Amino acid sequence: MSKAALSEFEADVIADEVFRSLNSIQVEDLWDNSGKTHYGYQEPTDVAFEMLSDEVWPHIRKMVQYSSLGMKTEEKEYCKGIIIGLLRYGESGNNEFRDWCPDDPYTVAENIVYDWKNNHTAEEIEEIQEVYDSFSTDDEAD
Q: What domain range includes position 84?
């Protein structure tokens, strides 16, 4: 029963959650967390990457949870959703925070695809790679 409750989602729903989460990051939080600190200077672009990664981390943790439960289909759909959400944010995020990390959503998505490739079958890899590639080929068609 609990596995059924965990598996009721689609990649687009997760993508929307990831996008909204990233698009809600306030640039003022970036400014508060960067600059001069007790330990030196923290570059705003470095802090922005950390903030973006921290915002995505709960979704990655959930994906890993599906894997540890042996729920491969749900894990794959969750992975797709995270990647789509990141790439959508990279393309059309409209908060001021995004200006500080224009390439970071793509980098995080690439890292997820890379990790996926190291831990899954060729068929599973192909499906995730297609999701990732669909965004880069859309740009080339313009």
A: 2-137
